[in-house]
Amino acid sequence: MSNGLTRFLGDTPGRTVLKLLVASFVVGVIMAAFNWYPADILYMVRNFLVNLWETGFAALGRFGGYLLLGAGVVIPVFIIIRLFSLRR
To answer: Contact at 8 Å (CB) between 46 and 53?
Structure first.
């Protein structure tokens, strides 16, 4: 049982707990310095994803507009070129 647990944790359970305590303390000090809380981080991630979603669709809308604008010129030119090449 101990070998499986040690393999899963990557180290002995005692050392793993000590590493987690030190890492938690350091992260806690940094978060306190920036006045961040875990809920704030979740809200930041949520807002980032919502903004990405909204701007992504706006970019797709602009892409579609550019596509239609270009197709209004490219398709007729393509048809004219194909018609002239059929006569040969």
So the answer is: no
* Interhelix angle 2-9/13-33, nearest 10 degrees: 30
SS (H, E, C) the chain: CHHHHHHHHCCCHHHHHHHHHHHHHHHHHHHHHCCCCHHHHHHHHHHHHHHHHHHHHHHHHHHHHHHHHHHHHHHHHHHHHHHHHHCC
What type of residue sits at position 17? V
Which residues of the chain are modeled with pLDDT < 70?
1-2, 88
Sole residue written with tokens 């010129």: 73
pTM value?
0.51
Using CA atoms, how far apart are residues 7 and 62, in angstroms rounded to an integer? 52
